[in-house]
Specification:
With 189 residues, the protein is mostly helical. It has two domains: 121 residues; 32 residues, no CATH class. 67% of the residues lie in helices and 0% in strands.
Length: 189
């Protein structure tokens, strides 16, 4: 079987595209998450050890990335952290499977990890694309006062401003008596 490797410029180009999209349309959660992804990528370059064994440094980095996305998925009201956490969990599971099955092919182990990295980045890009941009409030977007109610608008201004507390005890007592007389009175047994 012949294997295919993506050119080395594809991942940086994907990160640059996701960064542009996140900073154009994303919110604070997306920007922090993108920072976590970029930091994990740069740390993974330093932690990578050439060979067919378990990548323990990358396993630790991916576990921390998963912990971030899991926390965010549990505390956010958006949809994309769920997908990012799921893909990060699959990356961590890939490391666990490599630890349990050491004879797992190195190409499969690394390729699956790279695939889930792309999918996690795609979840961030989709979250940025589907997030409504935050607009700065202007005079047109601020809530306007409601129009006056037709009955209240016809009342004199002094009557509109009176509340039951300012009407006085005589008026309040008359209203209470009126309400009492309209209720059905239970008959004695």
């Amino acid at each position: 079987m012949q294997s295919y490797q993506l050119p080395s410029w594809v991942w940086p180009l994907a990160v640059i595209g996701a960064t542009a999209l996140v900073f154009w349309r994303g919110d604070r959660e997306l920007r922090i998450s993108l920072g976590v992804m970029v930091a994990a990528w740069l740390l993974s370059i330093k932690a990578y050890v050439y060979g067919h064994d378990l990548q323990q440094g990358i396993f630790l980095i991916d576990t921390l990335v998963f912990a971030w996305f899991l926390w965010l998925a549990l505390h956010s009201q958006r949809f994309w952290p769920l997908f990012a956490a799921a893909f990060s969990m699959l990356m961590v599971m890939t490391h666990i499977i490599k630890a349990v099955i050491p004879s797992l092919d190195a190409w499969t182990y690394l390729s699956v990890g790279i695939l889930f990295s792309y999918m996690t980045l795609g979840a961030l890009a989709a979250g940025a694309y589907f997030t409504q941009p935050v607009a700065t409030p202007s005079a047109e977007t601020l809530p306007q006062p409601l129009p006056a109610h037709p009955v209240r608008a016809a009342m004199p201004a002094a009557a509109r401003q009176q509340s039951p507390a300012t009407l006085g005890p005589a008026t309040t007592a008359a209203n209470t008596r009126r309400r009492r007389t309209t209720r059905p009175v239970p008959e004695p047994a």
